[in-house]
Amino acid sequence: MKFAPRHSTERGHADHGWLKTFHTFSFAGYQDPHHMQYGCLRVINEDRVEPTRGFGTHAHREFEIFSYIVSGELEHRDSMGNVEVMKRGDLQMTSAGKGIRHSEHTHGPKPVHFLQIWSMPSTRGLSPQYFTRHFSDEEKKDGWAHVVAPVDVEGVVEKREAPGPAPVHSPIDLYATLLSQGTKVSHNFARQKGYAHVVQTSGYNTKEASGAQVRVSGAEGGALDLKEGDGVYIMAAPGEEVVVENVGDRVAEVLLFDME
Q1: Hey, which residues does 171 pair with through a beta bridge?
Q2: Global pTM?
Q3: 145-150 and 241-246: which strand pairing?
Q4: Annotated binding site for Fe cation, which residues?
Q5: Does the record carry Iron as a key word (predicted)?
Q6: What pLDDT digit, counting tens, does each position of 26-51 carry?
Q7: Phi, psi angles (nearest 5°) of residue 8
Q8: Measured between alpha carbons, how far is 150 from 42 in angstroms, rounded to an integer?
């Protein structure tokens, strides 16, 4: 197993007043040929949107788009007729397929903090679909909650609302944890690519990463420490184990991708 760190200070970022955002991969005005995508994973945007503001109606096609809500509330509307307000713990998946139009705005008096994640589908020309799931803090506490999984995996339910992970038409699994101080979790990779991201829960910070701190181990060359906003590319053989340990002074919220 090998690690390649993606420090928060190296991500693309922009402060538009109404929107404060970080881009792990090239997006909008931020373009870096060394960080275009990783496997089927194309976008990880960590967004904070001010009250009454948001993204007006716009089109998507041939992407699997999921929103992971960290805090606040996000209102979603789309051309399939879906209208929904999402809150902390919610995971919303839009399979854009042949094409959809949607909008996303902050709902209520507080800003919304969420991660917008895009993956590339294995099959093009699918009919658009919409799914929502909810995962409580208790489900994530000191263990991996399986929040997204390929649609053809046993136990994945292809219904708008259902228990278990949201279905995705990409070879990608997403796990989330809320890791207490001194606690560790492990994961055995099913595929050859992984990516871990520490959510920036302490606030928008464009300077050196701070806040929660985790140690990721299992690779050649030793362990790697990450703080809020940091991430790491992981190259692994199927079956290899990665360990994530909270070595900081507060709860760490961590996302882990396992993908082709």
Answers
A1: none
A2: 0.98
A3: unpaired
A4: 58, 60, 102, 104
A5: yes
A6: 999 999 999 999 999 999 999 999 99
A7: -55, -40
A8: 16
- Residue ranges of the annotated binding site are 58, 60, 102, 104
Render pLDDT for 41-92 as a digit per residue (tens, 0 to 9).
Answer: 999 999 999 999 999 999 999 999 999 999 999 999 999 999 999 999 999 9
Task: List beta partners, residue 256.
Answer: 175, 196
CATH fold label, 2-259: Jelly Rolls (2.60.120)
In 10 A of CB 202, how many CB atoms? 14
What are the structural domain ranges in the chain? 2-259
Count of C-beta atoms within a 10 Å radius of residue 86: 22
The strand pair at 241-246 and 213-217 is best described as antiparallel
Distance (Å, rounded) from C-alpha 23 to C-alpha 93?
19
User: Phi, psi (5° rounding) for residue 216?
Assistant: -105, 125
Q: Which residue has the tokens 């997006």?
A: 27
- Is residue 214 within 8 Å of residue 195, measured between CB atoms? no
Where residue 203 falls (left for φ over 0; alpha for ψ -120 to 50; beta otherwise) is: left
Rounded to an integer, what distance in angstroms lies between the CA atom of residue 179 and that of residue 256?
13
CB 85 within 8 Å of CB 107: yes
CB atoms within 10 A of CB 77: 15
Helix H, strand E, coil C: the string for 187-224 is: EECCCCEEEEEECCCCCCCCCCCCCCEEEEECCCCCCE
